[in-house]
Amino acid sequence: MTARGPDTRLVATPVVTGREVLLVVPALNEAAGIEACLRSLLAGDPRLAEVDVVVADGGSVDDTRRIVARMQASFPRLSLIDNPQRLQSAGINRAVRHAARPRHRYLVRADAHALYPPGYAMRVADRLAATGAASVVVPMDSRGTGCFQRAAAWIVDTPLGSGGSAHRGGRRSGEVDHGHHAGMALDWFHRIGGYDDGFSHNEDAELDLRLRDQGGRIWLAADLRLDYRMRPDAAALARQYWNYGRGRARTIRKHAVRPRLRQVAPAINLLLLALGALLGVLGALAGSPAMMVAGSLWPMVYLSALAAASAWMALRHASPCGLWAGPALAAMHLPWGAGFLTGLLRRREPKAP
């Protein structure tokens, strides 16, 4: 992911010192990009010289740790800690427990495989101070290089792909219910107990739910954007969305909240497809054309929607790569729905690794 876009509308002058900021970067086998990520985070604002930066390593077996250790000679406020639980949520919690000092007022979270524009961390902290929000989140603009990646990126930021979620390509700053985490006021982080470090996915949405329940405000800074690289193929995308669905179900089970329509739509779609297939099989066994036709109705509607999405993206972007949009949607919708349904049916909460 690549973050971009300064904001001069809300913060005319710096309002936060570097000593007040704790920057945490969870990492696991990120040797290919960790140095470029850290150098991008530590450039572009003189206040960054006073920012404490913590890399929480989940047991990398590549050169990630060696690279960070070497960089400490140039960046004395850079530190490396172990994250035995390996999950990002656990790494951030551990970094706050071990590295946070009374002078720290703001937590900034960054991704080890991302590149950031000059001064990004301080702009996030400035925005927290200027808005008075408990958390600042940023929208993601999906990107891709291969044909499948590009089509998936084009379709995911549409209502068909994300259900209109504000942090997926959103263009308007303001209060939201949830978004991709960028920064948080540390007093709020401590107040709600940080992340639930048993969550491997959906940990940010689960934290946002607790934050809002206690009166915290979440601000979407639409100008501080992230370029997000989609998974390279259908199988990888399906695995990702399976985990997303299970994470969302776990959040719903934990807090006994009612999901939104856009969150249950993939599960409803999957159930209708399964019902249609069952009617088709029963109709064939019973020799009932009427039952077979009834069973084919929803699958035909869904297939038509996928075909329309492919044609729409191909025409909109004047590229045959857009024809992969339909398969990409299926690789998101169906595994998400399956993960969500199986997550709801779990009798026990899974333990963190």
UniProtKB/TrEMBL annotation:
InterPro entries: Glyco_trans_2-like, Nucleotide-diphossugar_trans
Domain called Glycosyltransferase 2-like: residue spans: 23-163
Keyword Glycosyltransferase: yes
CDD domains from the UniProt entry: Succinoglycan_BP_ExoA
GO molecular function: glycosyltransferase activity
One Pfam family cited in the UniProt record for this chain: Glycos_transf_2
Keywords of this entry: Glycosyltransferase, Membrane, Transferase, Transmembrane, Transmembrane helix
Keyword Transmembrane assigned: yes
Protein's name in the database: Glycosyltransferase family 2 protein
